[in-house]
Amino acid sequence: MRLKHKVALVTGAGSGMGRATAALFAAEGASVVLADIDQTAAQQTLQMIDGRGDCLAVGCDIADSESVRRMFAEVERRYGRLDVLVNNAGLGQVPGDGFELYQQRLAQRGEQLAAGREPEVFTDMIVDLTDAGWQRIVDINLNGAFYCSRAAVRLMIACASKGSIINIASLSALSGEGPLSYCASKAALLGMGKCLARDLGPRGIRVNTICPGPTRTPMMQSISEEWARALQQAIPLGRLLEPEEIARTCLFLASDDSSCFTGQTLAASGGMLMH
Fold it and tell me: CATH number of the domain that 49 lies in?
């Protein structure tokens, strides 16, 4: 029961890594706020962990600062404190981000190279990336994490909690592989996390970032089968990661087991990144 008497909020708790993390936190004794833009999905997660403490499912659009404010006001009314925030909610691709054309061109370029030809196709993802495609990803992946972190820190300070903030970025933030807006927004989380770690360290609030490698989540379904196979072949462990493995990494960073960790980037990648 490493999180007994703690209150944790997990965004994107309706599926994938968020659902696995919320379930594990509840099993470890935390009161968990399960936040998701799809409140029905959050309720389904709540039903999965029913009976494991005082948990709450809420619908929240983290890209809307007012929606975030209302959610944290509810957390304060119900629990009076917050000890852990997991900024997990994120999008991989949206209409207008140029990624579908990128995948098509990447496959064509690969075919030309495999045939021993000089490639005549270029991926040029930025050429097709629209303002709306860029903005929506940044709004969710970066602005949403900022809005939630700001509200969480305000509540942690008010209740004198030496809390833990955990950002879920991506290996793409380190490798540059993936949709342009996704890579940029996830890389920005690394910088935000380090800055917050320095800023909040004197208060005892720790901030760390996890960069998962290819993980068996709904987001993985958005990439082509060829790319998915190539990713799996590039993992030294020879398999995709499971959401529960990322959840256990979150548990480590949320608990006192990681009391000396702050400003760190943990690549939970099955060995794709070694440093």
Answer: 3.40.50.720
- 78 within domain boundaries: yes
Please state the domain count of the chain: 1
CA–CA distance, 105 with 121 (Å, rounded to integer): 6
Among the listed residues 186, 4, 30, the one whose alpha carbon sits nearest the alpha carbon of residue 93: 186
Tokens representing 272? 């794709």
User: Which domain range does residue 76 map to?
Assistant: 7-94+137-266
Euclidean distance between CA atoms 203 and 44, whole angstroms: 36
Residue 105 lies in a domain: no
Q: Which of 137, 159, 166 is nearest to 10 (CA)?
A: 166
Give the pTM: 0.93
Half-sphere exposure at residue 91, Cβ-oriented, CA atoms within 13 angstroms = 22
Within-domain flag for 124: no
Give domain status of residue 106, yes or no: no
Residues 152 and 142 sit within 8 Å (Cβ to Cβ):
no
Could you tell me the two tokens for 216?
């068996």
Q: Which residues are catalytic?
A: 182
* pLDDT by 10s per residue, the chain, length 275: 999 999 999 999 999 999 999 999 999 999 999 999 999 999 999 999 976 779 999 999 999 999 999 999 999 999 999 999 999 999 988 999 988 898 889 889 999 999 999 999 999 999 999 999 999 999 999 999 999 999 999 999 999 999 999 999 999 999 998 889 999 999 999 999 999 999 999 999 999 999 998 888 777 666 667 767 777 788 888 888 899 999 999 999 999 999 999 999 999 988 887 87
